Amino acid sequence: MATIRLGDEAPNFTAKSTEGDINFHEWLGDSWGILFSHPADYTPVCTTELGTVAKYKEEFAKRNVKVVALSVDGLESHKGWVNDINETQNTTVNFPIIADEDRKVSELYDMIHPNASEKFTVRSVFVIGDDKKVKLIITYPASTGRNFEELLRVIDSLQLTAYHKVATPANWKNGEDVVISPAITNEEIPDLFPKGHKEVKPYLRMTPQPNLD
Active site located where (predicted)? Predict the structure, then answer.
C-alpha cells in the first residue's frame, strides 16, 4: 500500500470514468486538482456530497481547480447513480467519477483503511497543485460528509501562500489579514508588503492580504 505525503508528486494513473478514459496528469494539465473518494455508489452521504460539488463547480473553476471523484463501483452503476444525484440534489453532475472496480487507484492513494472497512474507501481528499505535487490530504470516516466550503477556504490559502511569502492564521477567510513569513526581515517588509503591517510580536507580523486590490 502506498504512502503519500505532502510535497510528493501525485501518482499518475489511467482509469475509466463517467466522462471517458482519464490519464490523471494529462487531465489535470496546468490546473490544480481535487481527487476525492466515496465508499460506494447509491450511499446517502455520498449522494449529497456529489450534488454539492456539482453546485460548487464555478467556484472551483474560478480557482483553476478541476474536480474528480472515485468510487469502487463500475461505470454502469455510476451512470445510474448520477441520475439519482441529479434528481435528489436538484443539480447536474458536471465532473468525472472514476470507476475503480479493481481498486487500483484506491490502493495507489491508500484510500482503503482495513480497520475501517476492508472493501470500501474512506472519504479521502487530495488537493494537488499545478506542479502535480500533493498540497493537502484530509481523511474523513465513511459516516461524516465533507465540508466543501472548508476545501475552498484551504485552496484559497494554498494558492495565496504558494505565490506570496505569507501564511494564513487560524480560521482565516479570503480577504482577511495574513501572517508575514518569519523568514522575511523587517527591512524587507516595505517592498514586499506596501499595504503596511502590524507587529503583534517580533515573530507575529500581520499584513493585509497581498493579492487583493
Answer: 46
Cα–Cα distance measured from residue 137 to residue 130, given in angstroms and rounded to the nearest whole number:
16
CA dihedral 166, 172, 177, 181 (to 10 degrees): -20
Residue 206: strand, helix, or coil: strand
Q: With a cut of 60, say whether residue 193 has pLDDT above it.
A: yes
Which residue among the candidates 15, 46, 105, 122 is catalytic per the annotation? 46
Q: How confident is the model at residue 55 (pLDDT cuts 50, 70, 90)?
A: very high
Read off the pLDDT of residues 135-184 as tens digits, 9 standing for 90 and up. 999 988 878 888 999 999 999 999 999 999 999 999 999 999 999 999 99
DSSP E strand stretches across 106-147? 123-128, 134-140
pLDDT number for residue 113: 54
Distances (CA, A) of 152 to 72, 110, 192: 26, 23, 26
Render the burial of 14-33: b for 16+ CB within 10 Å, e for the rest: ebbbbeeebebbebbeebbb
Residue 16, SS3 per DSSP: strand
Per the CB < 8 A criterion, the answer to whether 86 and 95 are in contact is: no
Q: Where are the alpha helices (DSSP H) in 56-166?
A: 57-62, 75-89, 104-108, 148-163
